[in-house]
Design a protein that fits this description.
This protein is mainly alpha-helical. The protein is built from 11 helices and 4 strands, in the order αββαααββααααααα. The protein is about 50% helix and about 5% strand.
Length: about 280
């Protein structure tokens, strides 16, 4: 509960010690409803972006997306197949990479994997989300690694000895996420800097378990001080560094494509190129 307690603690610090400091808080709607606000009854324009002269929205869109509303453009479903394939590739790669990281043999997980079953469930959930106009679901790599680390028993060198394999932790955590809808007023008090700090901590805390980060640190270590791993024992130092540099270049390419809106559609291709690397 360290992350939860940290969020509560720093939120209280902000509210009690620095109440005069204006900070951006989490944007939470007053009620559970679609957030797309319409300018008129056709609900094809967004309030207030497309109707700045109006003082209030006409209403919100329906819960379910009207799949038959093509605005007279019958070719849209066919043309949408291309981006849909890219989106599927992205989901497949994101989920697959996460599953294989979690099920790595060094983690000593005893339960069998179910990659196909997980992918089918992910596809069903994404179909439902698409009908509701909600974001698609993918496996979140960093929280999954942190969850694995929290359930792991480690030796004095930080190597995993055993993992307490259970579904109860994820079941209860998702039940708490569902119950958050009854605490919308409390969620509005959460400062965004606190949440950004938590996300930064989660990312940094997972770095020691990532092989690429371990190999990156080898640039700043003497060869005699290298940790005893498979690649340091059986590969030459220059070969290890060359491989790490190639991965860094691919990572930089993915970062650029992801953050440049004009070419962001190519993000799945950049992710695929990282597989051989």
């Amino acid at each position: 509960f360290a992350v939860t307690l940290s969020v509560i603690f720093w939120t209280l610090i902000k509210e009690l010690v620095f109440p005069q400091v204006k900070t951006e808080t989490l944007s939470v709607p007053d009620t559970v409803e679609p957030t797309f606000k319409c300018c008129d009854e056709t609900c094809k324009t967004l309030f207030p972006d497309d109707c700045s002269s109006q003082t209030e929205a006409w209403g919100t869109r329906d819960w379910f997306v009207d799949l038959g509303d093509l605005d007279g453009k019958a070719w849209v479903p066919i043309m949408a197949a291309g981006p849909a394939i890219l989106a599927f590739m992205l989901c497949f790669l994101d989920c697959g990479i996460t599953w294989h990281l979690i099920n790595h043999k060094s983690h000593k997980i005893q339960h069998g994997e179910a990659y196909n079953y997980d992918l089918v469930l992910n596809g069903i959930f994404n179909m439902v989300n698409g009908m509701l106009g909600l974001p698609w679901l993918v496996a979140t790599t960093v929280p999954c690694i942190i969850h694995l680390s929290a359930l792991a028993e480690k030796d004095e060198r930080g190597h995993i000895v055993k993992v307490q394999e259970t579904r109860l932790t994820m079941l209860f955590s998702h039940l708490l996420v569902a119950l958050s809808v009854v605490a919308l007023d409390a969620l509005k008090l959460l400062p965004l800097p606190v949440l950004y700090g938590v996300f930064l901590f989660m990312g940094l805390s997972s770095l020691p378990n990532i092989q690429m980060w371990k190999r990156f640190l080898l640039f700043f270590q003497q060869p005699s001080k290298y940790p005893q791993t498979v690649y340091t024992q059986y590969m030459e130092k220059n070969r290890i560094h060359k491989y790490t540099i190639v991965q860094i270049c691919f990572f930089a390419g993915v970062f650029v494509v992801m953050n440049v809106k004009a070419i962001s559609i190519a993000f799945p291709f950049m992710t695929m190129l990282c597989i051989p690397a």
